[in-house]
Amino acid sequence: MSRAQAGGTGTSRRVRSARAEAVALIAVGAVAALAGCKGRLETVSLRMGHRMYASFTDTATVRMGERFQIGDTPFTGEVDRFLPDFALDDDKKVVSRSDEIKNPAVHVNVYEGEKVIEESWAFPGRGAPHIKSQNFVYFVITDMKIAPEEGVEGGDNDAAADSAGTGAAH
Fold first, then answer.
1. Inter-CA distances, 119 with 17, 73, 130, 133, 139, Å
2. 3-class secondary structure per residue, 42-90
3. Where are the beta strands (DSSP E) in the chain?
């Protein structure tokens, strides 16, 4: 991690914090625009952070199964699972309650070389990010592009994204 990413003045931290809050509001709006949509995840935009280096942030827009660099570290990430309606069942197993986008989440593996060293779930930017106690890197969904289900063209789903003005497309 570079000094610029790990440090910074109080003013620049406040600016970054205000930007992060604005991104979180956009992400919540984007998910609201996608509510009720069904389809396949085309791309997801992630904001990354580090719990020990609060000023470290990075972003990536990726497809399922595509490796992406995490800052200037030796680590890469990969989104390997998308759930449109994340939930835990009675046995505390991760499931999707439905095919509709109500509580979207993506599962992210963090690699050092070819070895998975961390795994995490990313949710839209509302509130604190999900971080396991042993994880250092966290991810927040800032945008998603959903491809309509086969046989479904545009329709009400397109109008919902356009009316929200968030840039969310599906």
1. 25, 16, 11, 11, 10
2. EEEEEEEEECCCCCCEEEEEECCCCEEECCCCCEEEEEEEEECEEEECC
3. 39-50, 57-62, 67-69, 75-83, 86-88, 94-96, 105-112, 115-124, 137-148
CA distance 107 to 9: 33
CA distance 131 to 147: 29
In sequence order, what are the residues at sequence separation of 6 or more whose Cβ sits closer than 8 angstroms to the Cβ of residue 83?
94, 95, 96, 104, 105, 106, 107
Question: Looking at the DSSP assignment, which residues form a beta bridge with residue 147?
Answer: 40
Measured CA to CA, the distance from residue 97 to residue 103 in angstroms comes to 9
For residue 161, the SS3 value is helix
User: What is the pTM (predicted TM-score) of this model?
Assistant: 0.67
Burial of 136 (0-12, 13-18, 19+ CB in 10 A): middle
- Give dist(CA 92, CA 100) in Å, integer: 21
* Nearest alpha-carbon partner for 23 in 108, 131, 135, 141: 141
pLDDT bin (cut points 50, 70, 90) of residue 34 is low
Answer with the residue of higher pLDDT: 81 or 133: 81
* Cα–Cα distance measured from residue 100 to residue 82, given in angstroms and rounded to the nearest whole number: 12
